Amino acid sequence: MLLDERKKRILEAVIEEYNRTAEPVGSNKIATDYDLGLSSATIRNEMASLEELGYLDKPHTSAGRVPSSKGYRLYVDSIMNEKNLPVQKKNLIDKAINDDLHKFNSLMHEASNILARLTDYASISIEPELDNAEVEEIKLVKLGHDKLMIVILANNGIIKESIINYDEDIPEQNIEIFNNFLNYKLQGRNFKEIYDNVNEYVGQELENINDKIVPLFAELNNLLINKNAKVHMEGATKLLEQPELKKQDTLKNFLNIIETQDAIKEIARTGYDGNINVYIGSESAFEDLKDFTIITYKQSINDKDVGTIGLIGPTRMDYKTVIPMIKYIGDTIQEKMKQGGEDGGRDREES
User: Fold this and answer.
1) What phi and psi values does residue 35 have, to the nearest 5 degrees?
2) Which CATH architecture has domain 5-79?
């Protein structure tokens, strides 16, 4: 059912007031503080109608009402007017993410940090999962006489690397043999396929070549095991100061969200590339997220997912302020990646 303009204006007023106070909103408050030209009785009747339609909820202990996930969805999609991002904040963002184009993960972390500093919510940056990424190249680099670095470059620009310590010198010819063999066997295969069949592909043959391969083979396995997306979070303590987090159930849900990270990763996986994605409360299949909103901006290079930035906060979020902010940061990163070309997505991630 489409809402008429009067209902939309009342819903907007209720949301604005609830976002400001975190308290259930009554009709008298809307009639007194919002210039709608309507009596308290008319507003009360319309709020009751909005509740029946599922746009407002009524807490059992209060005569007032609060927005539902459905109410917030309508507000975000078709009612609110986004605020213009102040020039001062644009300058802060530009300075914060003015990073080396060849260090994309660092760029994402800086974007996450500035989001946390400029809002009252927890910011997130999420690496892409590598299950479906392919190995573009493997490099073995000798570091001194007893250290070897293994570097795996994925075709989405993500780099996995680790350092292996040996008890004795490693001959250069062995390194060259190992390097050529690994590339011959693994180039073009996706990470999940290699992880599931690594012993069949390279394990037995490499062990036959030289017993010095054992530590290298073990570390290759470790890099493949760490194939899942990682979530970097800033500002979680600020979010704990929100009134919603004073409730034990809501706090427990939030702690579970940040501990398991499953909900955040799943939401990041489903977002649209190069655009704002807003997931509100009970819209999510995750029970832990019923009182929270996650807003994301999914980055891509050449149509390949290279990571996501975003915010997590209560459904009582200042949408019209934070959405333009995330959009500006996301667009700025996209522009930097275009300037940097394919190499703009490559960073080194130490395991």
Assistant:
1) -80, 75
2) Orthogonal Bundle (1.10)
